[in-house]
Amino acid sequence: MGSRPHDPQMPEPVTAAGREGLEALLRAPRRAVVALDFDGTLADIVPDPDQARAHPDAVPALAALAPEVAAVAVVTGRPAGVAVRYGGFAGVPGLEHMVVLGHYGAERWDAVTGIVHAPAEHPGVAAVRAELPGFLDSIGAWRGTWIEEKGRALAVHTRRAADPEQAFAALREPLAELAARHGLMVEPGRAVLELRPPGMDKGVALTEFLTERDAEAVLYAGDDLGDLAAFSAVEKRRADGLPGLLVCSGSAEVPELAARADLVLPGPAAVTGFLAALARTLRS
Fold first, then answer.
1. Is residue 36 over pLDDT 70?
2. Measuring CA to CA, how many Å separate 164 from each of 50, 169, 190, 227?
3. Does 57 participate in catalysis according to the annotation?
4. 157: closest CA among 77, 81, 250, 102?
5. Where does the pLDDT of residue 141 fall: very low under 50, low under 70, confident under 90, or very high at 90 and above?
6. What's the rounded Cα separation, in Å, for the pair 17 and 23?
């Protein structure tokens, strides 16, 4: 595929569209964007999200890859500054032009300035923040669930419940009703329900960034339901003749993503290994 010899450690996409996307990236890397989710893709999922950190091989792989492509971006539901801190992305040689799109694109951190740009908080978030603990208690759902403060969003986790799937299912409709009363929406994920403002998702954020960079090819990697919007954005570009590669950081919890991916890798260690192999191929 293409004119570059592949690093032997770089797995091949299993779909024709994915092979075309990888070929386009290898053929013209300076016109390609590499965009990645954070949790579950660059960082292992852990019981306490505040303890999540990028895989030890992630920053070296990204620092090797970034100078070879048009841009490297992290697209995450976390606040941009938190993702930068937990990822260890600031001040890294090779990542001088990295971008982190936080809160599904509502916030943006540019390595070149080190500044986070963000709009004012949605008033519904403050209202839900005040109401949520009592709300969970009133519906008998407090035991085993816990609230994560995300600045411009709030997340209710069920992973520690006696039956995480049952708790997730029981909470989904009541939380959707609570969110709707305050002009918010619920984003489901892996044993988590996030209440956040509507109007921005990873697909919108990715599309706007690709337009900004005039990208001719894109690689997007994610692991959760929130990444489906980004997958759809890449699929739409492919329908318009612009190649892209979709990578799933494999999880049995989110089969919908794996079913649409061109390449399924078994977690962050494998994703960072793939990125490192891609960097070696481009530098060869």
1. yes
2. 19, 9, 10, 21
3. no
4. 77
5. low
6. 10
User: Could you give the CA distance from residue 251 to residue 271 in angstroms, rounded to a whole number?
Assistant: 13
For residue 137, the one-letter residue type is: D
State the pLDDT at residue 3: 56
Split at pLDDT 50, 70, 90, the class of 2 is very low
Strands (DSSP E) found in 159-222: 185-189, 192-196, 217-222
Q: 29: which DSSP letter?
A: G
pLDDT for the residue numbered 119? 86
Query: Rounded to two decimals, what is the model's pTM?
Result: 0.85
Measured on CA atoms in the order 156, 253, 261, 11, is the torsion positive or negative?
positive
Residue-wise pLDDT tens digits, 50-96: 999 999 999 999 999 999 999 999 999 999 999 999 999 999 999 99
- Catalytic residue (one of 37, 39, 201, 227): 37
59 token code pair: 């920053």
4: pLDDT strictly greater than 80: no
CA distances from 154 to 67, 117, 127, 128, 148 (A): 35, 20, 11, 8, 6
**What is the spatial distance between Cα 159 and Cα 212, in angstroms, rounded to a whole number?**
38
From CA 25, how far away is CA 151, in angstroms rounded? Answer: 35
Which candidate, 268, 189, 205, places its Cα nearest to that of 35?
A: 205
Q: Select the more confidently predicted residue: 27 or 4.
A: 27
- List beta partners, residue 149: 154
Decide: 160 and 177 in contact? Cβ < 8 Å: no
3-state secondary structure of 108: strand
Q: In what order do the strands lie in the sheet with 99-102?
A: 115-117, 107-110, 99-102, 71-75, 32-36, 217-222, 244-249, 263-265
Mean pLDDT of 197-224: 95
Q: What tokens does 50 get? A: 């505040």
